[in-house]
Structures are given as structure tokens and as C-alpha cells.
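Q: I'm writing up a methods section and want to include an example of the input and output format. Could you take the sequence below and give the corresponding predicted C-alpha cells, formatted cleanly so I can copy it straight into the document?
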Amino acid sequence: MLIKRIYYLVLALVLVGSLSIWVSPNMARTWGESFQQWSGTADPVYANNSRGGVRWAPPAPGAVLGAEQRRFGTEFKIAVTVGINAYPELSGLRPLNYARADAEALAAALRGAGYMVRVLVDGNATKGTILNTLRDINRSLDPNEGTVVFAFSGHGFQDSAKRNYLATYEASVNDIQTTGLALDTVENLLATSGAPRRMLFIDACRNDPAPNKGSLGVAASFAQQGLFAGSEGTQILFSTKAGDFSWERPELGHGVFTHFLVEGIKGQAADAQGLVTFRGLADYVQAQVHRWGFEYGNLQRPYVAGESSGWFLVAQTTPPVLPAVPPVVPAPVVTQVPVVTPPPPPAARLAFEPEMVSIPAGSFMMGSPQSEVGRFDDEGPQHRVTVKAFQMAKYETTFAEYDAFCEATGRKKPSDQGWGRGNRPVINVTWDDAVAYAKWLSQQTGKDYRLPTEAQWEYASRAGSTSRYFFGDDANRLGDYAWYYDNSNSKTHPVGEKLPNAWGLYDVHGNVREWCQDRWHANYNGAPTDGSAWESGNSTNRVLRGGCWRSFDLNCRTAYRNFNEHYFSGNYWGFRVACFLG
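A: Here is the clean output for your methods example:
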């Protein structure tokens, strides 16, 4: 009898402890962690977070975060966000409401944190496009440097061998192994990228499967799992454990998981120093999603799988830590207090001044890989270039803007070929004309206007992309972004009528080619790596970049290069200006 009583007592304690772990959103996530808490051996502690209530907030070693902060401020950060709402009818999957919005919102948050981001949504989020994008990232990163993020919002599956798959746009529940993208393939591609910090955010158990069309029951079938061989330095945050749904809510306009993920990156998961580590972000998301689930009756339990400390930074709301500078010892006697004059406010844009877009500082791989379709030899070798922040004209210089220069200086106005002036890009201008216009604009505004260097042009045109075009590799979509041979009717068109790139620049793939500052060189051997103009050599030719109204799609690629004599003009090239800061 005594033995039975002891048995039932132990059983009751086990059940109560298990229930407490399941109920409380702020308690330990595993039996091992709960034992550490109860036994007093756990190093994490509960902390108050004024941004997000009470959450699990393990303190990070100061030396670790100090080193991370220095690296985060200088190293390359790149992300790929994928979101699919509109699955084809025959896929066996119903459409989702907010997966695309999730990918776009997460991309915006990561750009705000200094990442270069590629967004793939709906029909552009095919298995091949995703794999090619990840391979491009592998080629663009330096060994042992940088941070890579991959995020997926959509449906997910598991096959009979318990292998997890992401449901890309062309995926079918009846042919998972062929049409789906294996999660371990993604993880292994990131592991070979060379980046020491790799993060995956996987929201692939959405609450809208289609069991009447052969679905496996998406939520229950996407298995909870760890990582794979060679995954050191990788962390994955899954939206929910196996058997649970990942919920979408109209009042949030997003999936619940991604809503709190975005809020955390923006600063809600930051510590007292304004740093968002992966570990802090995961803890914030887990606590908030748990809390939401209990309030609305929809259980969802995010979980982490990873092979790193989790202390690496995702974002920061404070400036990067710079090396310490020895203090300056003041003079022993101060005879007067200097008067500090505040800087003047930025000058308003003048009527004839172009509208500018701010281009962030960063680095990128300039040129094209040898595998790129349509590549020319002068686009290589690929090389990493670091570019300082600057401003780039939102549109190509228009006739209206250039005509103001001609009227002010008595210069002859160039011909418009009978196509119209006004808001159309100026044509029939030489490189010398473009340089003279930039010099005049600088004199009129007090700002430093010039032609962009070739590196600056390609960096701004790519806007974080690594594909043939800034929108992807599919030339069939070029007509949405550019006036070129197939749709231009053999003439220029008013600027800004096509879609811009991710940084807000229009017409970089078409309408007119654009003069750059650099002399022409037949390849990139010996090219500058700091974003400056390549002025060495004796060539009198100057670089032209971008596609134009008469270009075939191959010659509209981001990496495509051309040139002409500095004193030549033509009806298919013009220019846009850049403005340099301090």
C-alpha cells in the first residue's frame, strides 16, 4: 500500500509539472530546461522587458556581444524571404491569405537592419529560383564573414521517410519529393555559404490545408527535427511544433509567428543595449506567440533547432561599437567657451533639381558568374566591392531637367527625335554633356552632383539582388520593369512608367542606357574595390550601363556593360546623376 501511495504521488507530480510547462508561455521549453530551473542550475533568468512584457531573457556575455556588435556593423548581411499565397489549383493546396505579406514585411524589417534582401513571392518562388538565389549568395560571400537569413512562409510537407519539404510555388501534395524543396537542402546550401551566422525562419505549417485533395495534413506532417551534418553556426526558428497549426489572423494582417518575428527584429526583442540576438529574438517570439495562443484559443508553440550559441546579432537599435579611441587630455586652462553654430538645415529641392533616392552603404559582388545565361566576358571576373552611402537619381535625367540647364547656360538643346520632350529621358547627349550638366547642377544647389561610378551604378541597380535582373532570372517578366525591344515601339517613353527596383530606382533595365564616370576597360582585372571611378588607362571610351529601348533581353541584364567615345551621342543613351554626401 505504501508503495502504491508513493507511486501515485510521483505520478501526480509528473502530471502537474508537465501541465505547468504546457500552460505557461514563459516557462521552460523542455524537460531538461525545467529541471535546470527547479534545481537552480539554469543560467537564463526571467527579466522584465518594457517593450514586450515579461519574457525569457538570458544575459549574454559582454565580450561575446561586443565582438558581435563590431562584426555586425561592418560585415555583409544578406537575406532571402519567400512567401506564397497563390498556389495553383491542381497543387492540392488552398491559397493562403498572408504568406506574401509576411515575406514582404520581414524583408522590410531586415532592410531596416542593414540587410540586402531578395524577396520571392508567389509565381516567382519556384524551387529552381530559390535554389539559384541561394547558390548566388554562396558565390557572393567571403569565407568566414557575414550573416545569411532564409525565411519561408507557406505550406510544408513530410514524406514517408520523414524528410521535411517546403511547398514552393509548383509543389504538389501527390509528388512531394520531386516538386517540393527539401528543408535539409536549404540548410546545407547555407552551411556551405561560408557565413559564420546563418538563420532560418520557417513558417510552413499554415492552418489551411486541403485534405479533400490528397493533402497529408500539413500541420501534423511537417516534423519537428534538429539540424543536419555540417550545420555548425546555424539556427532555425520554426513557427510551431509538429502537430500544431501556424495560424494566420486578419486583425494582424500576417501569420501570427511572422507578426511577432517582425516586431522583434524592429526592436521589441532588443535587450537593454538595443541589441537583438537570435536567442533573444527566439525567446521573444515564443513568449508572444504562446501568449496570443492562449488569448485566442489557438495553440501554437514555436521551437528552436540550432548548432551555435545563439548570441549572434540579428539586428541592433544602437550604433555599432567602434574601436576605443584614447581620450584627449584638455588644456589645463580654458580662456573662453567656443560658440558652436548648429549646421544649417538641408536645402530644399529646387524646381529643376532631380528627385533623389538614398542608397545605403554596403558591399556586393560586381559582375556576373560564368554560369549566367547571356553573359559576356567583359562582365568578369566577379569581385567584391564596398560602396559608401550616396544618393542616386530616382529617374533618368529628363528633357525638362536638361533643357533648364541649356536655357541657363545658352547651350544648344539636343534633338528629341520627334518623340517628345518633357518627362522623357534626355537623349543625344555626350559624356561631356552629362559631366557639364552635373557640374552646373552642383553650382546651382551647393551639392556635389556627378555621374555615378560604374560600381555605384551596378550596386544601386541590383538593390541587394544577385540574379540576372533585379527582379529575378525570368526574362519573361522584363516587360513589367523596362522599355526594351519587345515593347518599346522603337522609341523612348516617359520615365517612371514601369516598376522600380527594391531601392526605388526606375528604368535601370531599359528606356535609355546611362553614362557612368569610368573609363572603359575590357574586363574587371585590376578594378577598384572601394566603389571609386576607374580612371586609369588611356582609353577615351566611357562606360555605358543598363538596357535601352532597342536592347534585347540579354542586354538588359544588370551586369551587362557597354561603352562609347566620350564625344559621341545617340538616341538610345542618356544618363542619371548621383549626389555624394559629405
